[in-house]
Amino acid sequence: MFEAEADGLRELRLAGAIRVPEVFDCGVRNGQSFITLERFAFDRPTVETERQLGVGLAALHRHTTEQFGWSRDNTIGPTPQPNKRSDDWVEFFRKQRLEFQLELASANGFGADLTDAGSQLAANLGRFFDGYAPLASLLHGDLWAGNWGCVEGSPVVFDPAVYYGDRESDIAMTMLFGGFGTAFYAAYSADWPLARGHEQRCKLYQLYHVLNHLNLFGDSYLGRAKKLLRELT
């Protein structure tokens, strides 16, 4: 997990779009895994910091590659996140994101009504991408309010779940648990507006994270997962 985090931070750092902590070391010592990162003293974010974050995220998403996925698997929180490379975003998201979480939900005993609705959604996933072909953008992958901050007036991001995918999935995550103001969204949209149909795809990408929270934290996320599935199907 720490090795994948270190590689993800290096990948983000190479893009040069948003500041990330430097990785000093990563390994095992006396039987204990560790990662050593640059330490930040955080300031209170401002409207200008949020604006810079929006511009920086758009710049990060312009760092693209030919295939979706990544050179290695990693984790989303403690959950494994497969990243086998694919030329087809819909197939990648179906197999390595949605169905992967649904299989975990089934193994965790969350019921056939959830997994049956999820399977129906997965079978019809292509409908959300009629007329829309996303680029394979470099993604933070887990961009919620707790994974960014302000240092000396500038935004920094950390604790990524890096891969290359649809940029809208990063935006969807920012909307899931709050913590991002209007200046952030206005700056991102002014730099690179989202495509038609992004509202429904936003729910689709949020479903992945809600299912992950369901599998990690239990029944408190079950109602939210079912609500998203109803809206999407």
What percent strand? 15-25%
Helicity, as a percent range? 40-55%
Order of helices and strands: HEEHEEEHHEEEEHHHH
In DSSP terms (H or I, runs of 4 or more residues), the helix count works out at 8
End-to-end Cα distance, whole Å, is: 34 Å
Rounded average pLDDT: 97
Give the SSE map.
Layout (H helix, E strand, L loop, with lengths): L1 H14 L7 E7 L2 E6 L9 H15 L2 E2 L8 E3 L2 E3 L7 H19 L4 H12 L12 E4 L8 E4 L2 E4 L5 E3 L2 H7 L7 H10 L6 H20 L4 H11 L1
Antiparallel strand pairs: 1-2, 3-6, 4-5, 6-9, 7-8
Helix pairs in contact: 2-6, 3-4, 3-7, 4-8, 5-7, 7-8
List keywords for this structure.
233 residues; alpha+beta; Aminoglycoside 3'-phosphotransferase, Chain: A, domain 2; two-stranded antiparallel sheet; 9 strands; globular
Could you characterize what this model shows?
α2 runs parallel beside α6 (182-191), α4 (112-123) runs parallel beside α8 (222-232) and α7 packs antiparallel against α8 (222-232). The protein is globular and about 50 Å long. It has a single domain (42-232), classed as Aminoglycoside phosphotransferase (APH), C-terminal lobe (Aminoglycoside 3'-phosphotransferase, Chain: A, domain 2, Alpha-Beta Complex). It contains 8 helices and 9 strands. Helix content is 46%, strand content 15%. It has helices spanning 2-15, 47-61, 89-107, 112-123, 168-174, 182-191, 198-217, 222-232; strands at residues 23-29, 32-37, 64-65, 74-76, 79-81, 136-139, 148-151, 154-157, 163-165. A hairpin with a 2-residue loop joins β7 (148-151) and β8. The two termini are 34 Å apart. It has 233 residues and is an alpha+beta fold.
